[in-house]
Amino acid sequence: MRTEVAIVGAGPAGLLLSHLLDRAGVESVVVETRSRQYVESRIRAGILEQSTVDLLRSVGLGERLDSEGDVHRGIHLQWPGRRHHLDFQDLVGRSVTVYGQTEVTKDLGRAREAAGQHIVYEVSGTAVHDIGTDRPSVTYTKDGRTERLEAAVVVGCDGSFGPSRAAVPEPRTWERTYPYSWLGILADVAPSTDELIYAWHPDGFALHSMRSAAVSRLYLQVPNGTDPGTWSDDRIWDALAARLGHGHDGWSLTPGPITEKSVLPMRSFVQQPMRHGRLFLAGDAAHIVPPTGAKGLNLAVADVALLAPALAALLRRGDTTPADGYSETALRRVWRCTHFSWSMTTMLHTSSDPFDDRLQRSQLEWIAASTAAATGLAENYAGLPIGF
Ligand code: PHB
């Protein structure tokens, strides 16, 4: 089989790239190890930056997002005895939209299906070849047969455990692991808050997020290696109530039936460059952020928003300049979000060190008291313009 761009991975990065390339008249084929059903039910953070929403709208993916997405002016920051609302709209003139990554992936799946996009799901043994030449290819096994997909360019949108990242010879990598994880739950109960609550508490961080008017998403900081089975539903709701300030200033947390419970590890990771020869990396294949601040999907969207026109210039006009600049341009934003995600994570999660506690409390109080400090957080959370 032959195509112009072979895309490895049918998550949001790979699907959006195929969508943007199609609009630029460039043909692609997508290969994916998982099933479509699996890809469309993966639970991920659900906060879209303004520039992500603008981009999705501008390429015909805004209809359900506009009717079902919930625009939030800001977030609540909390610590014992205090809840402070940060209004991004007032601070930086931008807001965020709560719309699950799962929903973005479903919208993309439907749009690609309607356009007749060739996507091969449930392949195994995917490997990337000849990326140093102008005839790279991807091989994989499907239904017991090995296939070769030849292309002018290969793009790895296959996450940090996929084969694309590993095909780059001698990359530089940076990694930070954290001494805690998140226990995340989905619950069939109306959110007890209008906007997200990020709470510092001596027992550990807690986050109240949401998926819809009837479904809440909440998280608790837990030690690494925690077995979710050791957390009963009652224990979870009690810990959430304590950390989120149930009873303070008349606020209460309404518990409800828990439909999903899982533990998420936290990691920061960057690999550069994001290109080698005719192989380009986008999204989690090149960088992982911890979930505090919900940057993962937004970063993936920013990558492919840069990459699609760069590939169109390369393949349609033989103009190599945007493709040559891709890695450096994308990495500016990657490192900004890497820093922001790290700073939100380390500001809000408790360690066993009382000195850290005091520094964290001082930082939170400064953000609540100073417009300058609040503006910095708001600018990063609501998101920098795509070309940053
Ligand atoms: C989520 O809704 O899953 C979520 C929201 C905000 C975060 C992380 C996760 O910072």
Number of strands: 22
- Nearest-angstrom radius of gyration? 21 Å
Mean pLDDT: 96
**Helix run count:** 12
User: What is the structural class?
Assistant: alpha+beta
Uncertain runs with pLDDT below 50, 5 residues or more?
Answer: none
Helicity, in percent?
25-40%
The CATH superfamily is FAD/NAD(P)-binding domain
Report the sheet-strand fraction: 25-35%
| CATH fold field value | FAD/NAD(P)-binding domain
Strand order of the largest sheet: 6-5-15-16-17-14-18
Report the major sheet.
Answer: 7 strands, mixed
The CATH architecture comes to 3-Layer(bba) Sandwich
Distance between the termini: 37 Å
Shape label: globular
The ligands bound in this entry are:
P-hydroxybenzoic acid
> How many domains?
1
- Give me the oligomer status: single chain
> What's the CATH first level?
Alpha Beta
Secondary structure topology:
Layout: E1 5-8, H1 12-23, E2 28-31, H2 36-39, E3 47-49, H3 50-58, H4 63-68, E4 70-72, E5 74-79, E6 82-87, H5 88-92, E7 96-98, H6 101-114, E8 118-120, E9 124-129, E10 137-142, E11 145-150, E12 153-156, H7 163-166, E13 172-177, E14 180-187, E15 197-199, E16 206-210, E17 216-223, H8 233-244, E18 258-264, E19 267-272, E20 275-276, E21 279-281, E22 287-288, H9 296-317, H10 321-348, H11 354-369, H12 371-382
Parallel strand pairs: 1-2, 1-12, 2-8, 5-15, 12-21
Antiparallel strand pairs: 3-7, 4-7, 5-6, 9-10, 10-11, 13-19, 14-17, 14-18, 15-16, 16-17, 19-22, 20-21
Helix pairs in contact: 1-6, 1-9, 9-10, 11-12
